[in-house]
Design goal:
Distance between the termini: 15 Å
Number of strands: 8
Shape: globular
Strand content: 25-35%
Structural class: alpha+beta
Number of domains: 1
Strand order of the largest sheet: 1-6-7-8
Length: about 130
């Protein structure tokens, strides 16, 4: 997807240990927004459009990161993080999805493409796709 443009961010959420959370986010080169209520939100740094799947260490080696699983370990009990993703490729197609998870391993997700199935269920027709 050479021409694919994307953006991601999270909602605001509480963490168990703000200092450990900041260390982790810094290691992954994430931007942190913090509210006055001590809630945190994450945004990929300006070099990246999406949250990392791998990270470079001090020696220049890359290693895989399970971003959702690692973030979940920082969530305070009863908190849920939502990641929203929007993207496009020269308006050939648009995409978007949101996922939510807690620190107990429970998750849900939705996609903009879910609308096609909903149209089929509600009106019994299969619409054309928003792409070319």
């Amino acid at each position: 997807m050479a021409n694919y443009e994307a953006r991601e961010r999270t909602n605001y959420f509480k963490v168990k240990d703000p200092d450990k959370f900041r260390e982790w986010a810094t290691r992954l080169k994430l931007e942190i927004n913090q509210s006055e209520e001590q809630l945190f939100a994450l945004i990929p740094n300006s070099d990246y459009d999406e949250f990392p799947g791998n990270v470079e260490d001090e020696e220049g080696n890359y290693y895989d990161v399970d971003f959702d699983a690692e973030l979940a370990t920082h969530l305070a009990d009863g908190e849920v993080v939502i990641i929203m993703h929007v993207g496009y490729e020269k308006f050939h197609y648009l995409c978007g999805y949101a996922s939510a998870f807690d620190n107990k391993g429970q998750s849900i997700s939705i996609s903009l493409n879910d609308i096609y199935e909903q149209v089929k269920e509600k009106w019994g027709i299969e619409p054309t796709e928003c792409s070319y």
